Amino acid sequence: MSNAYHITEEASATNIVLVADHASREIPEEYELLGIEDPALLRRHVAWDIGIEDVTRRMSEKLGATAIYSTFSRLLIDANRYPDDPASTPEVSDGVHVPANVGLSDKERQKRIKTFFDPYHNKISEIIREKQKQHEMLLVFSMHSFTPVMNDYERPWHVGVLWDRDERLAVPMLDILGKNPTLVVGDNEPYSAREPFGYTMNEHGTKLDIPHVVVEIRQDLIDTHHGAEQWANLMADVVRQIQKQLAPK
C-alpha cells in the first residue's frame, strides 16, 4: 500500500469522488516530528483537518462512493498547495515553528514531492480516469474542516461552500444547505476558493471541466464520532440531492 494515501470504496460504480487532502497528521519517524518539540501541537489544526477523515469515510460508506485520503501531514508537504508555493512546506504555520522546513533544500523538497505529493495526486487522476470511462459526468467533492476561532474571531459558520468559476455543485449545495434553518452557511467562507488557488480542485476539477466544490465543516462539530456521523448523514443527503438534480434526463 502507498504511504501517501488510502482509499475506501475503490470499486464503487457511482459517479461521486470524495477527496480529503488533510485527512492525516502523520509524519514518518525519519522526519522526527519535523523538529517540533511538543507532539501535542500535531493534534491541532496546524497538522491536519480535525474530524474530516471520519466524516469522509462515513460519507463514502453511506453513498457507496470512492474516497481518497492523504496519509501525511500538511506540515510535511501540503497536498492542496502547488509545490513551488512556500506554504507547501511552511517554516511557520499558525504560530508553530517547523524547524525541519527552514531552509529546505531542493533535494529534500523533491523527495517529499516524489514520496508523498505525486503518488497521492497520481492516484486521484487514476480514479478520475477510470470513473470517466463509466460516467458522462463526475462529481468531485473536496472535504476539509476549519477552526471555530481564527485570530480571536469566532467564526459563525457551521459549513462553508468554496468555489471559483464552476457553480454546478456549489449553487445547488448552497441552496440545499441554505434551506436548513439550523445552519449558518458560508458562501466562500471562512475561506475563498479564489485565493489562494487550491491545487486539488484546480488540477482535478477546473482543468478537466469536472464539476467540483470544496466543503469546509467547522471542527468542533465533527471532532467526535457522534458529530462526524451527524454531519456525514447531512452531507450524504445533500450529495444525493445534487446527484439527482444533475443526473442525465
Name some characteristics of this structure:
249 residues; alpha/beta; Aminopeptidase; seven-stranded mixed beta sheet; two-stranded antiparallel ribbon; 31% helix
What is the fold-level CATH name, i.e. the topology?
A: Aminopeptidase
Q: How many strand elements?
A: 11
CATH architecture assignment name: 3-Layer(aba) Sandwich
N- to C-terminal distance? 40 Å
Total count of helical runs of at least 4 residues:
5
Which overall shape is indicated by the principal axes computed on the Cα atoms? globular
Low-confidence stretches: none
Mean pLDDT: 95
The amount of beta strand, in percent, is 15-25%
Q: What structural class do helix, strand and pairing data support?
A: alpha/beta
Helix-strand blueprint:
Layout: E1 5-8, E2 16-20, H1 52-63, E3 66-70, E4 92-93, E5 96-97, H2 106-134, E6 139-146, E7 149-150, E8 153-154, E9 159-162, H3 170-178, E10 185-187, H4 199-204, E11 212-218, H5 225-246
Parallel strand pairs: 2-3, 2-6, 6-11, 9-10
Antiparallel strand pairs: 1-3, 4-5, 7-8, 9-11
